[in-house]
Amino acid sequence: MDNFTVGVVVFPGSNCDRDVSWALEGCLDIRTKYLWHESSDLSDVDAIVLPGGFSYGDYLRCGAIARFSPLINSLDNFVKSGRRVLGICNGFQILTESGFLPGALTANKNLNFICDDVELDIVSSKGGWFNDGGEKQTIKLPIAHGEGRYHCDSDTLKKLLDNELIALRYKNNPNGSSFDIAGITNEKGNVLGLMPHPERACDETIGGTDGVVTLKSLILK
Amino acid sequence: MINQENYDLNEALKVENLTINDYEEICKRLKRKPNRTELGMFGVMWSEHCCYRNSKPLLSKFPTKGKNVLVGPGENAGVIDVGNNQKLVFKIESHNHPSAIEPFQGAATGVGGILRDIFTMGARPIAVLNSLRFGNLDKSSNVDLLRGVVSGIAHYGNCVGVPTVGGEIDFDDSYSGNPLVNVMALGLLETNEIVCSGAKNIGSPVLYVGNTTGRDGVGGASFASSELTTTSLDDRPAVQVGDPFIEKSLIEACLEAFKTGDVIAAQDMGAAGLTCSSAEMAANGNLGISIDLDLVPSREDEMSPYQYLLSESQERMLFVVKEDKINDLIKKFNKWGLYANVIGQVIATNEVIISHKGQIVAKIPTSALSDDTPVNFHNVIDTPPDYLLKKWEWKESDLPAIYEQKIFSLKENKNFSYSEIILKLLSNPSIASKRWIYKQYDSQVQSNTVFKPGKSDAAVIRLREQNNKNKNKVFSGIAASVDCNSRWVSLDPFRGAIAAVAESARNVSCVGAEPVAITNNLNFSSPENEIGYWQLSSSCNGIAQACEALETPVTGGNVSLYNESKNKDNVITPINPTPVIGMVGSINNVEKAISSEWKNIDDEIWLIGSTKSDTTIAASSYLEYFHGEITGRPPKIDLVDEKFCQNFLRNAILKSLVVSSHDISDGGLAIALAESCILSSKGATIELTRDLNRDDNLLFAEGGSRIIFSISKINENEWLNYLKENQIKIPSSVFVKKIGRVSNETLKIKIQDKDICNIRVEELSEKFNNSISGYF
């Protein structure tokens, strides 16, 4: 486990890449490595985080350009191998744009960017991303996004529900997301996308440690 | 041979905002007539925005040196030593006129511009604050302006990944046609050496990096240096368009480039674009620069030399670099998808030489552009204007007598209880929660923001370099606050300016940090009007005096004049004079910093303040918002006591004796108490003793260098010991007294054992939180 390395992807416009790296290395002692968006060699990382930010400026649509990057193109095999991928905020948007997760993220209902702390219900234990066996069923994490309103058609929603793919739901829906969805996993459970920022809650000095379990679970098999 | 085309001189001078005297001076300096392009270059370089032609004599009064100041005024931004070998770069700048006519892009590029000033020096931007002024929100155009400005700041700041951590906003009708948008940025130096702007090494290549040059923002600096009129909307092309994505990439590429040590000098292209940056690099290095415009990456065809030189297209920088490292540097920029073109070189003669299509289109001695720039001297009136002298006669006894704990509002012609007045003040947009605004700003990115916005008197940032992953270290921190009570400045520019410096320092002290230095943004009306100039001059005197006394030197700033608007009937409305102070302070252990909300039930609530600093209803928020009167002379602040109170409290905070602290400002003691209740969802039981003043003075008076703070139960003895040990040092004019305890659910205030206010915190919050958001 000592050599376990989490790849943190850097697109031009990513701006939470260093925060993720600080949370993992500084707070949790997990080794990280930056992966430049043009690289397609993922052989020396054991898990991947797609961090928040505005990849390629997020012009056109959030995540719409990032999905064509060499790195995302090589992600398919990585996911199929069962290794873990965590998409936070813009990372979640990229995962839906590139089809690793269903649905889409659209502009917040009030059309404004929202930066706030939100209460979240842990809905599913799939992939073990949230529950470390403790009692905690509700966590508080920061959000910061302009386009975080999760949307999907009713068939997809049914599939999400039937397969327990909804990981997190807002207690007080801030952005108009369908079914209060804040985060979902793929069927296998090794890919998680969420709008809240667990990396901003791994450190008491800046407000809370409710994000620790999620980042720590990157090293789960 | 220099290209000399004919042009209409009068028309050209008008466009460039130059006088005929300026023109004669230019001819003298060039020893010939300038061509049209050269005249344009002089126009921007000699504007107030670039050379402070009206304010220069006043700015020279500011103290600019201090033990922690590494770089003072003159460079792109100020630099201070914050200990542990860390250097903090900071500056404030305005984007008022662009925001008036195009609020979204005006505000967005305001953020972009000030960030470039920071990273040009080798620092990574770590925080942004803003100070905003708008007309009252009952007018829909002001609501639209606020919405546009806030989304512009959010758009740029959020995307570029720099947290917006604090700010202030105030509403007054004088800003209706001319809102103020001031942005302060702070950065932490990541290079060993501060990157300066002076060109060095003759023959070194001049490298242009960043975005392309277009026609946007041509003449922006001249435009910013004249008043707004009904036709100003036609100047919309003078407003630049920003691209925060390019800026983010530019930050990364520049910092990578600076770390190699291969960049000899750097200057961002801000106001006056290529003209200003090349002239300043040449002048600061005492050398010359030659530039070939054909090598400049452009986004539009057929641009004229004039347009190239005066374009204010965003996200561009000019470097002087080591010749043998040029390819490595270009590669770094290309990796981030940015242009990097060699467009000229450093030359031995002290001239800026510009060529275009094989012809020299401008050839100006650098000294002609930037040395001894013209100064407009104005006469300063020696007594305050009559209308103010009259207002200063106002006294508290002019208010209606208090009858059965009810006060008659002169504004609404009816009686109100104290509780009703508190709720009324809390829902005034200038006092109410600014949550609707700061919720749109990413305040957390970079993972160093210690308190959420609105929770503390000053923003607190942990100083952790982005690549530092050592958690076991004790991190130091910095605090920052922007402040200006523009009502006070309008009623007494000297006292008001002193108060602005004192308040910003007090805010920084309230979190536990030591005030170190300031940057300032002087927003005033036309200096050609004698009252406008008197306001500017008196404010500068006040700032100078306060900064001297509080030992917080001025490291730079920005002057924005001609802030006034003209309506259809040609009636001119000048803004309230608004000298915004951006204070920074440092704290050795960031874990010691405290916020302003109550912490535990039963904690003691204390008050510190000075009787030498006036505590008065004159010029207060209560007088304006409850009685509808903007009058009276604002409080005089005793700077010696002010400093004592701040030091005394700060030392107690650093000993971990104090768990919350909040300065008393708009709305007085009652509002400060209410705010600490709202932020904590806890109540307070307060007992006050009646003095010679009216009860509304006890509750709502402002001034007095006062701060409320709370002591946790477990620290009570230690606190009393600290107080006793220091008793002898406390001046007789300073009081430190217990006024109550933190409680559940309600804010109760007694005066002489009589209940005068009893409000549930829920009700306070409801008024406080739903005021501004109600307009959208």
Automatic annotation (TrEMBL), chain A:
Entry coiled-coil feature ranges: none
Reaction catalysed by this enzyme: L-glutamine + H2O = L-glutamate + NH4(+); N(2)-formyl-N(1)-(5-phospho-beta-D-ribosyl)glycinamide + L-glutamine + ATP + H2O = 2-formamido-N(1)-(5-O-phospho-beta-D-ribosyl)acetamidine + L-glutamate + ADP + phosphate + H(+)
SMART domains: GATase_5 (SM01211)
Pathway(s) this gene product operates in, as recorded in its UniProt entry: Purine metabolism; IMP biosynthesis via de novo pathway; 5-amino-1-(5-phospho-D-ribosyl)imidazole from N(2)-formyl-N(1)-(5-phospho-D-ribosyl)glycinamide: step 1/2
Keyword Nucleus (UniProt): no
GO biological process terms, semicolon-separated: 'de novo' IMP biosynthetic process
EC numbers on record: 6.3.5.3, 3.5.1.2
A single cellular component GO annotation: cytoplasm
Gene3D superfamilies: 3.40.50.880
Swiss-Prot/TrEMBL keywords: ATP-binding, Cytoplasm, Glutamine amidotransferase, Hydrolase, Ligase, Nucleotide-binding, Purine biosynthesis
Function recorded in the entry: Part of the phosphoribosylformylglycinamidine synthase complex involved in the purines biosynthetic pathway. Catalyzes the ATP-dependent conversion of formylglycinamide ribonucleotide (FGAR) and glutamine to yield formylglycinamidine ribonucleotide (FGAM) and glutamate. The FGAM synthase complex is composed of three subunits. PurQ produces an ammonia molecule by converting glutamine to glutamate. PurL transfers the ammonia molecule to FGAR to form FGAM in an ATP-dependent manner.
Full protein name: Phosphoribosylformylglycinamidine synthase subunit PurQ
Species in which this protein is naturally found: Prochlorococcus marinus str. MIT 9201
Gene: purQ
From TrEMBL, chain B:
Molecular functions per Gene Ontology: ATP binding; magnesium ion binding; phosphoribosylformylglycinamidine synthase activity
Annotated compartments: Cytoplasm
Binding-site residues for ATP, renumbered to this chain: Y52, K91, N520, G557
Domain PurM-like N-terminal intervals: 74-188, 456-586
InterPro entries: PRibForGlyAmidine_synth_PurL, PurL_linker, PurM-like_C_dom, PurM-like_C_sf, PurM-like_N, PurM-like_N_sf
Gene Ontology BP terms: 'de novo' IMP biosynthetic process
Entries under CDD domains matching the protein: PurL_repeat1, PurL_repeat2
Pfam families per record: AIRS, AIRS_C, FGAR-AT_linker
Catalytic activity: N(2)-formyl-N(1)-(5-phospho-beta-D-ribosyl)glycinamide + L-glutamine + ATP + H2O = 2-formamido-N(1)-(5-O-phospho-beta-D-ribosyl)acetamidine + L-glutamate + ADP + phosphate + H(+)
Keywords: ATP-binding, Cytoplasm, Ligase, Magnesium, Metal-binding, Nucleotide-binding, Purine biosynthesis
Annotated binding of Mg(2+) 1, by residue: E93, N558
Residues the record lists as binding substrate: S94, H95, N96, H97, R116, Q240, E312, S313, Q314, S560
Every PurM-like C-terminal domain range: 203-354, 602-742
Active site residues according to the UniProt entry: H49, H95 (proton acceptor)
SUPFAM superfamilies: PurM C-terminal domain-like (SSF56042), PurM N-terminal domain-like (SSF55326)
Annotated Phosphoribosylformylglycinamidine synthase linker domain residues: 18-52
Binding site for Mg(2+) 2: D117, D268
Pathway per the UniProt entry: Purine metabolism; IMP biosynthesis via de novo pathway; 5-amino-1-(5-phospho-D-ribosyl)imidazole from N(2)-formyl-N(1)-(5-phospho-D-ribosyl)glycinamide: step 1/2
Annotated EC: 6.3.5.3
Any one Gene Ontology cellular component term annotated for this protein: cytoplasm
Protein family (similarity comment): Belongs to the FGAMS family.
Biological role stated in the UniProt entry: Part of the phosphoribosylformylglycinamidine synthase complex involved in the purines biosynthetic pathway. Catalyzes the ATP-dependent conversion of formylglycinamide ribonucleotide (FGAR) and glutamine to yield formylglycinamidine ribonucleotide (FGAM) and glutamate. The FGAM synthase complex is composed of three subunits. PurQ produces an ammonia molecule by converting glutamine to glutamate. PurL transfers the ammonia molecule to FGAR to form FGAM in an ATP-dependent manner.
Assembly, per entry: Monomer. Part of the FGAM synthase complex composed of 1 PurL, 1 PurQ and 2 PurS subunits.
Name of the protein described by the UniProt record: Phosphoribosylformylglycinamidine synthase subunit PurL
Organism of origin: Prochlorococcus marinus str. MIT 9201
Gene that this sequence comes from: purL
